TrEMBL record:
This is Ankyrin repeat-containing protein. SMART domains: ANK (SM00248). ANK repeats lie at residues 263-295, 300-332. Pfam families: Ank_2. InterPro entries: Ank_Repeat/CDKN_Inhibitor, Ankyrin_rpt, Ankyrin_rpt-contain_sf. Keywords: ANK repeat, Repeat.
């Protein structure tokens, strides 16, 4: 789920009021509150709505959830940012400009300059650098970045990659970063627009997989974010075929009996946003819920009907509604209905259909 952006002049009392409202909505058994807690309160990550409502939500937990909604790991970190003398707008400042460690910053500059030889020498001189993390707050992801992560240009910093980025990446891989760093970088590459637009996505995927990166998590993320070419490339390098990947690749969904409930739900999101009516029907038949918010990692702020409406897929929207999808459900981030999504995106045919459904 995308995190919220703090206002230009954030106010602690207003943020505390949001936590109070979240506790109230939790007590009222709001499905939207359950989804927010599933996404942003770690203990709720694997719980269904009933289990979330069964336990009281403390004030400290509500404050933690609010902080994480804004991209901060804890309430004290959010509070420190708000009370700081000159808060930095981390939404507008490229990540490399927020790095305070000069050794790490120089390594990132070498990546951006395409200086593979210089980077190799710098890593030889500073061998611990390949395992170091830098912490960023206030954004949607990239919270604890390693040096290898920066080769993906995701999040976008310059909008381009050096022409020899594969060689630069190899220089870092030769310094033996840990498995988590390789896996995270593969996901960033597979879902990044800049590697795709620079024509190096497939090469980087192949290189990272050859050096031990696990293709499965990256393939799932790429499917959710409609990077279908990355999905196909990752399958070539060993990603296990799942209903999510099959849906993204346009393959038939023949046997869903062993699929987890979460995979079915994410696959329904993918099918809805891509307009695959056959997959929508198959997934609904297998037990996917047309009214559930998408699971974390799968556009969790919205329902499948929001996805179909926003992307303008009338047949998919119709299939969902006929299966019981509620057109009055509101998304978590903008508090909008599928009809409002369709109108916002100019999907007039879908909007007219949802208007008609609402009047029936």
């Amino acid at each position: 789920m995308p995190v919220r952006r703090l206002p230009d002049s954030p106010n602690l009392d207003h943020l505390k009021a949001q936590a109070k409202d979240l506790r109230r909505d939790h007590s009222a058994r709001s499905a939207m509150a359950a989804q927010r807690l599933r996404e942003f309160l770690p203990r709720c990550r694997r719980l269904n709505d009933d289990a979330i409502f069964a336990t009281a939500l403390s004030q400290s937990e509500a404050l933690l959830a609010i902080a994480r909604e804004y991209g901060y790991p804890s309430w004290p970190r959010l509070k420190a940012h708000v009370e700081g003398p000159s808060p930095i707008d981390r939404w507008k400042t490229p990540q490399h400009e927020l790095i305070t460690d000069p050794t790490f910053r120089h390594a990132v500059d070498l990546i951006d300059a395409g200086d593979a030889a210089g980077l190799r020498e710098w890593l030889r001189m500073h061998s611990a650098l390949v395992h170091q993390h830098v912490t960023f707050e206030g954004g949607n992801y990239f919270h604890s970045a390693t040096l290898l992560n920066f080769i993906a240009e995701n999040p976008v910093r310059h909008g381009k990659l050096p022409s020899n980025i594969v060689e630069v990446t190899l220089a870092i891989l030769e310094a033996n970063p840990d498995a988590a760093s390789r896996d995270e970088t593969l996901m960033l590459v597979a879902t990044g627009s800049v590697p795709r637009e620079c024509g190096v996505q497939a090469q980087l995927i192949a290189l990272l997989c050859r050096h031990g990166a696990n293709p499965n998590g990256a393939a799932k993320a790429a499917a959710v974010l409609m990077e279908d070419a990355s999905v196909a490339e990752l399958v070539k390098h060993g990603a296990k075929m799942t209903p999510i990947l099959a849906t993204a690749l346009g393959l038939p969904l023949e046997d869903l009996t062993d699929a987890t409930a979460e995979d079915l739900q994410i696959a329904l999101s993918v099918a809805s946003q891509s307009g695959r009516v056959d997959a929508v029907l198959a997934l609904l038949k297998a037990g996917a819920n047309p009214n559930a918010y998408n699971p974390p990692g799968g556009h969790a702020h919205a329902t499948p009907l929001h996805q179909a409406a926003g992307f303008g897929h009338l047949a998919a929207a119709r299939a969902l509604v006929e299966a019981g999808a509620r057109p009055d459900m509101r998304d978590v981030l903008w508090n909008a209905t599928p009809l409002e999504w369709a109108r916002h995106e100019g999907r007039l045919e879908v909007a007219r259909y949802l208007e008609m459904v609402g009047q029936a």
